[in-house]
Amino acid sequence: MAPTTGQERRPGAGGSGVAVGGAAWFMLYLLVAVTPLMIAVLADPPPGRDLWTEISVGLGFVGLSMLGLQFAVVSRFSAVNAPFGLDAVLQYHREISYVAMAFVLAHPVIIFVRRPEMLEVLNVVEADWQARFGVLSVAALLALVATSVWRRPLRLRYEVWRVLHGILATVVVIAALLHIEQVGYYVDGPWKRTLWAVMSLAFVALLANVYLIQPLRIRRRPWRVTSVTPANGSAWTVELSPVGHDGIRFVPGQFAWLTFGRSPFAVREHPFSIASSAEEPGSVQFAISEAGDFTSRIGELEPGTRAYLDGPYGVFSYERQEGPRFVFVAGGIGIAPVLSMLRTLADRGDSRPCLLLLGNPSLEAAPYRQEVEELGDRLDLTVVHVLDDPPQGWEGETGFIDGDVLDRHLGEGFERARYFLCGPVPMTDAVQAALAERGVPTDHVNLELFELV
Ligand SMILES: Cc1cc2nc3c(=O)[nH]c(=O)nc-3n(C[C@H](O)[C@H](O)[C@H](O)COP(=O)(O)OP(=O)(O)OC[C@H]3O[C@@H](n4cnc5c(N)ncnc54)[C@H](O)[C@@H]3O)c2cc1C
Fold first, then answer.
1. Percent of the chain whose predicted confidence (pLDDT) is above 70
2. What percent of the chain is predicted at pLDDT more than 90?
3. What pLDDT, in 10s, does the model give residues 142-166?
4. What is the whole-number distance in angstroms between the Cα of residue 257 and the centre of ligand 1?
5. Which of 88, 216, 277, 366 is the least buried, fewest Cβ under 10 Å from its Cβ?
6. Dist CA 442 CA 412 (whole Å)
């Protein structure tokens, strides 16, 4: 496979470049977000409209633009994700949607407050099409946010939610564009029309990219399951080999979205960290723990099953954070990206000291315990098991990984070490807080969360 095409830029490929890339993307985002507002400002004010109506229209335009940009934010564009990391980008996607919603809602709210007679447009049976499209767009937006915020209380399965999310998002944007088109004030005149047409086409192109182009790109690079083997702690090692291409270039610690046995257009794609060494890109291994309906059937996968892999993504890698020594803190299957980093360090003959704190209920439940201990022969690696349900006679660490455990094992010069935490949120929160209390700079601490939604 070509080393860079379609991939995120290598983490660690230059801190200032990354910062500049991030700032440039953010400026572009702001520019696109306010472009419709500029179109509106430059337009001749329609007759008989007061300033508040104009303000409300401007806010609505910015909100819509931000919503359209959400398709770019979630498009998994390598160049956009590289400076921030996909998880940070998705976090931004979640949080900025509240801001966009506030802008969009401000549009009808201001109009209704200033001109209560306009409330009539809510009667969609009798209202005209411009009002119907406006109401449809806002209703779809409210449903979109509600189903995302309350997905669990509403008992929406992830896959169902994801399809619904895509449909609602498309309805929000298309209905809003039709609403603007029907109102027509701001899209008259050749250059305003052209500008607006370009914006609308860009939104549609982003939609096509998410639902069509990316799956087609993934389809060109199929994989095959070569083995599925059980590991400790209800985990499975799934190995994939490339079919008709030369595999994937990744940095240790990154993850990919996996789809098995179906077309890449399937909605059942799940993110998993690559657990194998980056020095062996020809075949990749994933360490998958049984969690729900998809993962609990991983053990039933037959060798030979077709697979599709979208990635690599993520910035959780020691390559992004070179330091004199490394401290890895993993809980349960959080060992997966750490395993990839340790295997890569070993394959590269790296002699820097590594400390691995592993939190599990018991040694038997600790996934990849054996593999980790064997890596000690090839690395300057200290492994500390912290068991919350230890067997009788266990003399090691017990309970959860906390400040006291850190104090006993971090050793001299711990402030200069680089930290990589992956595991249950209470564990990563506690360790993060304890490290901050001990004066470890926050930019030395890297986090991978297995919860995206
Ligand atoms: C960056 C990242 C790396 C990960 N790496 C690993 C790994 O190496 N090994 C491992 O065992 N697990 C990993 N996970 C977690 C794994 O993706 C989920 O456990 C799995 O998708 C759950 O699917 P399920 O249907 O079996 O469980 P469910 O019970 O359906 O889901 C449990 C929870 O997982 C999340 N989830 C479910 N489906 C998806 C999906 N398609 N995409 C995103 N999140 C979803 C939801 O929050 C859901 O509530 C990773 C997650 C992320 C975000």
1. 91
2. 55
3. 999 999 999 989 999 888 898 899 8
4. 10
5. 216
6. 18
Residue 320 CA to ligand 1 center (angstroms) comes to 24
Q: Which residues contact 425 (CB under 8 A, 6 or more apart)?
A: 449, 451
Q: What is the DSSP letter of 165?
A: H
CB of 336 within 6 A of ligand 1: the answer is yes
- 388 vs 397: CA distance, rounded Å: 9
% helix, strand, coil for the chain, step of 5: 50, 15, 30
Q: Is the CB of 165 under 6 A from ligand 1?
A: no
Residue of 155, 151, 161 whose CA lies nearest to 267 = 161
Q: 276: Cβ below 6 Å to ligand 1?
A: no
Contact 379, 354 (CB under 8 A): yes
Ligand 1 atom closest to the CA of 453, numbered from 1: 47
Rounded Cα distance between 300 and 238, Å, is: 11
Which residues fall within 8 angstroms of residue 71, CB to CB, at 6 or more apart? 169, 173, 203, 206, 207, 209, 210
Question: For residue 365, which phi and psi values (nearest 5 degrees)?
Answer: -85, 0
pLDDT digits (tens, 9 = 90+) for 280-331: 878 999 999 998 888 999 999 999 999 999 889 888 999 988 889 999 999 9
Q: Which residues of 205-226 are buried (b: 16+ CB within 10 A; e: fewer)?
A: ebbebbeeebbeebeebbbbbe
Centroid of ligand 1 to alpha carbon of 292 (angstroms): 8
Residue of 148, 270, 293, 421 to mutate, ligand 1, most atoms within 8 A of C-beta? 270
Question: Could you give the domains of the chain?
Answer: 15-217 (1.20.120), 222-313 (2.40.30.10), 321-448 (3.40.50.80)
Whole-angstrom distance, CA of residue 243 vs CA of residue 55: 56
Whether the per-residue pLDDT at 1 is higher than 50: the answer is: no
Q: Residue 330: beta bridge partners? A: 358, 422
**Residue 7 tokens, joined:** 């991939």
Structure letter (DSSP) for residue 293? T
Q: Where is pLDDT greater, at 180 or 335? A: 335
